[in-house]
Amino acid sequence: xxxxxxxxxxxxxxxxxxxxxxxxxxxxxxxxxxxxxxxxxxxxxxxxxxxxxxxxxxxxxxxxxxxxxxxxxxxxxxxxxxxxxxxxxxxxxxxxxxxxxxxxxxxxxxxxxxxxxxxxxxxxxxxxxxxxxxxxxxxxxxxxxxxxxxxxxxxxxxxxxxxxxxxxxxxxxxxxxxxxxxxxxxxxxxxxxxxxxxxxxxxxxxxxxxxxxxxxxxxxxxxxxxxxxxxxxxxxxxxxxxxxxxxxxxxxxxxxxxxxxxxxxxxxxxxxxxxxxxxx
Length: 280
Known about the structure:
Layout: E1 3-8, H1 15-21, E2 23-26, E3 29-32, E4 35-38, H2 45-55, E5 60-62, H3 66-76, E6 82-87, H4 95-103, E7 110-115, H5 120-135, H6 140-153, E8 155-159, H7 164-168, H8 174-182, E9 188-192, E10 195-200, H9 205-220, E11 226-232, H10 236-249, E12 253-259, H11 262-268, E13 273-279
Parallel strand pairs: 1-2, 1-6, 6-7, 11-12
Antiparallel strand pairs: 3-4, 3-5, 8-9, 8-13, 9-10, 11-13
Helix pairs in contact: 3-4, 5-6
Organism: Metabacillus bambusae
Keywords: Lipid-binding
Protein name: DegV family protein
C-alpha cells in the first residue's frame, strides 16, 4: 500500500522540505477585507507582517473549503492507496473537520484524518515523521500508532507580546486579555484539550523566555534524544540564538527553526516566540 502524507499550511514546512519528503500541503487563507491570500502560496510571513503594519488592521482567517479537500484527495488517489491528513488542532480551526467530512466523500482512496491538537512546526513534526515512515513502506496503521505515541511526549509553549489579537480572534476570552493587558503580563500559552489557554502569567518577556527554557530543560536533562523547534513571528535573530544555546548545552537535542505564518500570526501577533519538542 502506498500512503500519501498531507498537512495544512499552518505546519509551516518549507517548500524544499515538503518536496524532499513528498509531503502534500493544503493552504488556509488570510483575508484583508475583500482581498484573500492563501498562506505559503500567495503570501509569505514577511509579506503578511508588512501588510498588517501598512493597513493597521487585523485580517481574518479561513480554513480550506471541503471541496478543495475532495479535489486534492481525488488527485492523490491517482498515485496513492491511502492518505494520512494531519491538521492543526480542531479546537482552534475547522480544518480537521473539513478533512474528515471530505474523507467520506471520496471512494477511491482511504483517508485517515489526524488531529495534531497543536499547530505550527510542532504539527509539522507529525508530518515529517509520518513521511519518513511512509517512504519506508510502513502501513497507515503503523504510522498512526507512532503519531499517537509522539503525542505523549509532544510539548509546545509560546509567548505573545500582546494579547489583543488572540482576544479579537476568539482564541482567548476578553476578560483574560483585559487582565493581561492591565497587568502588562507576558503570559506563556499552550494547548490544553485542543484549545489555547494560559499556562503561566509572567511579567516580562525575558522571564517568560527563561521559563520556557526551564520547561524544556526538564525533558532535555533526562539525556533522551529530543527534536525541538524554536518558532518566531518576525524575530529570526532571537530564535537563532535559542537554537544555538539549546544545541550547545544538550548534545541530545536537535533544534530546528520555524516561524508563525500569516494564519497563526493573525492570532499571535508580531514578536511572538514559541518552543516545541518531542522525544525522538
